[in-house]
């Protein structure tokens, strides 16, 4: 899902990070590319234009002076703007289904996945929400469609309204309502007829059914792969019938994810669910956060943030040094050091860089201290609570046992770690007094 857009955008951001500090021109250039990327992903032009304008205003407003993480900053702004655009009101996926039996009208073009989605939602409502659901097909022109729903119903264990030949859609809707009331159902779902294109008859039929059923939700099912067309379909259905939410299907394919963005921006309708495959479980509530993440390509953000952190670490080092000079060195500091060491080519590499540590480096080597141990030590610290890390002196036997167990290690190993932490703390203190620490830290960061 969204691969095209995400690849494109991550390319843009890669370039940003390589440039270091971000000027206003950089923002403009980057956002011009974001706009192209959006258009290529089939986001409609006005939506892309609006989106970029919004981001630009925010980015410029936020004064990109703090040169530490320009890329991260833009990613965050673009991400937030995407979430903003994609977010609908209320809980994602929430359906108004109080006052049983609540009618849900399912509309959409033929082949959009309407019948499949009806069954998927019925299954979800049954299993997740404990609702009793009745499904009815109103597609009188296509007996196969009516049978399809019946078969799906049996497969997922959800009741369907018995098929009566020759009945018209309005009569079926009425019968479904009666049956739902008498049978004590919480929800009844009306799967209306689909056509290949929107035509007057289709709309008229759906409108008649709507008037009879007075649905709590009218969900439009659209094929997410059809991009701009999906948005046009949604606009038309909403104008003519009134839609309360959208389900985007085939979001498992590698189609152009721009549809989601345009859909939301143009129709103003919330996207409630996304279909992610043919199986009956392949449906999820629409999570703007997750979709925005996918549009941006999470992997790239992570690496971006990591790159940005390298610069942040320089600041942290400065702060840490001040603490060390005062003789403060707790397990949080140690964890940071250990992680830094791993990055810097392990224990030996780091010790080699620190003046006055040659002897210790030798000892370390002799004791067989390698990167595996570094990792184990990090795991031990991770197994501690926040308070324990900040105050290693509170680590008594029972805490030690729990921590070691959590990291899958022996208490004796934890004791070694604590001893090392004390030694390092002492050393930092001594070095801090002689100004050596500053030298040493320079080498490390
Ligand atoms: P309808 O004509 O709108 O009722 O469409 P159907 O429910 O019969 O679906 C048409 C085809 O699309 C079927 O083969 C479904 O299995 C498939 N389909 C529906 N939703 C999804 C989806 O989210 N992902 C994928 N990959 N296929 C889907």
UniProtKB/TrEMBL annotation:
It catalyses: GTP + H2O = GDP + phosphate + H(+). The keyword Ribonucleoprotein applies. InterPro entries: AAA+_ATPase, P-loop_NTPase, Signal_recog_part_SRP54_M_sf, Signal_recog_particl_SRP54_hlx, Signal_recog_particle_SRP54_M, SRP, SRP54, SRP54_GTPase_dom. Keywords: Cytoplasm, GTP-binding, Hydrolase, Nucleotide-binding, Ribonucleoprotein, RNA-binding, Signal recognition particle. SUPFAM superfamilies: P-loop containing nucleoside triphosphate hydrolases, Signal peptide-binding domain. It comes from the Bacteria. Its EC number is 3.6.5.4. Its main location: membrane. It is a peripheral membrane protein. It is found in: Cell inner membrane; Cytoplasm. Coiled coil: none annotated. It is an enzyme of class 3 (hydrolase). GO terms for cellular component: plasma membrane; signal recognition particle. GO terms for biological process: SRP-dependent cotranslational protein targeting to membrane. Residues 270-283 form the SRP54-type proteins GTP-binding domain. GO terms for molecular function: 7S RNA binding; GTP binding; GTPase activity. GTP binds at residues 108-115, 191-195, 249-252. Involved in targeting and insertion of nascent membrane proteins into the cytoplasmic membrane. Binds to the hydrophobic signal sequence of the ribosome-nascent chain (RNC) as it emerges from the ribosomes. The SRP-RNC complex is then targeted to the cytoplasmic membrane where it interacts with the SRP receptor FtsY. Interaction with FtsY leads to the transfer of the RNC complex to the Sec translocase for insertion into the membrane, the hydrolysis of GTP by both Ffh and FtsY, and the dissociation of the SRP-FtsY complex into the individual components. Part of the signal recognition particle protein translocation system, which is composed of SRP and FtsY. SRP is a ribonucleoprotein composed of Ffh and a 4.5S RNA molecule. Belongs to the GTP-binding SRP family. SRP54 subfamily. Composed of three domains: the N-terminal N domain, which is responsible for interactions with the ribosome, the central G domain, which binds GTP, and the C-terminal M domain, which binds the RNA and the signal sequence of the RNC. This is Signal recognition particle protein. It comes from Roseovarius aestuarii.
């Amino acid at each position: 899902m969204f691969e095209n857009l995400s690849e494109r955008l991550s390319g843009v951001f890669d370039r940003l990070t390589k440039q270091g500090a971000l000027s206003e021109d950089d923002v403009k250039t980057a956002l011009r590319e974001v706009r192209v990327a959006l258009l290529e992903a089939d986001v409609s032009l006005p939506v892309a234009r609006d989106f970029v304008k919004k981001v630009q205003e925010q980015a410029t407003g936020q004064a990109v002076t703090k040169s530490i993480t320009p890329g991260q900053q833009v990613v965050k702004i673009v991400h937030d703007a995407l979430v903003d655009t994609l977010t609908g009101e209320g809980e994602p996926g929430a359906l108004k289904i109080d006052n049983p039996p609540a009618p849900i009208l399912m509309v959409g073009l033929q082949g959009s996945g309407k019948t499949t989605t009806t069954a998927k939602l019925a299954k979800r409502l049954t299993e997740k929400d404990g609702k009793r659901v009745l499904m009815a097909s109103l597609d009188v022109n296509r007996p196969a469609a009516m049978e399809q729903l019946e078969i799906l119903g049996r497969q997922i264990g959800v009741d369907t309204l018995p098929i009566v030949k020759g009945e018209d859609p309005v009569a079926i809707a009425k019968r479904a309502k009666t049956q739902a009331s008498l049978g004590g159902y919480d929800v009844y779902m009306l799967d209306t007829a689909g056509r290949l294109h929107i035509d007057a008859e289709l709309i008229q039929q759906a409108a008649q059914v709507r008037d009879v059923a007075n649905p709590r939700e009218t969900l439009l099912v659209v094929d997410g792969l059809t991009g701009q067309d999906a948005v046009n379909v949604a606009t038309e259905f909403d104008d003519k019938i009134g839609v309360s939410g959208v389900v985007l299907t085939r979001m498992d394919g590698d189609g152009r994810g721009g549809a989601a963005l345009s859909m939301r921006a143009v129709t103003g309708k919330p996207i409630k669910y996304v279909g992610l495959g043919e199986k009956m479980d392949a449906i999820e509530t629409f999570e703007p956060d997750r979709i925005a993440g996918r549009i941006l390509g999470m992997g790239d953000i992570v690496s971006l943030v990591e790159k940005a952190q390298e610069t942040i670490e320089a600041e942290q080092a400065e702060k840490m040094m001040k603490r060390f000079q005062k003789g403060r060195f707790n397990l949080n500091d140690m964890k940071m050091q250990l992680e830094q060491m791993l990055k810097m080519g392990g224990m030996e590499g780091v010790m080699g860089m620190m003046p006055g540590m040659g002897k210790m480096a030798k000892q370390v080597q002799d004791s067989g201290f390698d990167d595996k141990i570094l990792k184990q030590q990090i795991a031990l610290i991770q197994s501690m609570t926040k308070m324990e890390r900040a105050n290693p002196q509170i680590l008594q036997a029972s805490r030690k046992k729990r921590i070691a167990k959590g990291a899958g290690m022996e208490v004796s190993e934890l004791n070694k770690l604590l001893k090392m932490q004390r030694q390092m703390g002492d050393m930092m203190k001594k070095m801090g007094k002689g100004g050596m620490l500053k030298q040493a830290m320079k080498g490390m960061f």
